[in-house]
Amino acid sequence: MSVLRSSGSSVSCVQDQGSRPAVCSNLTDHTRAAFSAWLHLRHHERGQHSDLTDLTSVGVLLTPRTDGYREWDTSVVAVNDDPELTDEELHTYQGLFNTRNSRHEGVPEGCV
Length: 112
What we know:
Elements: E1 2-5, E2 12-15, E3 21-24, H1 29-46, E4 56-64, E5 72-80, H2 87-97
Parallel strand pairs: 3-4
Antiparallel strand pairs: 1-2, 2-3, 4-5
């Protein structure tokens, strides 16, 4: 399990590397986009070892609510077949999420 507490922001996230759930301390357009990009990259990478035609990758992002309605929000991202990432998207996502020096390798900034 990886844990990230980001200095200078209120984002704190946890991810279990085996099953890939993610928990973030707040939900923003940035965390949604980063989590979606991360899942698209991971699904694309599955295609290096498997035929993606019949495969689906599902990511679940948990974030706390502060309105008292319930304790958590659950956001789900699913990717089917080949995500058809452009060369630019692939290069960008790999640069963000596949760094060897990252304490939380392969995880979007703001979500671990």
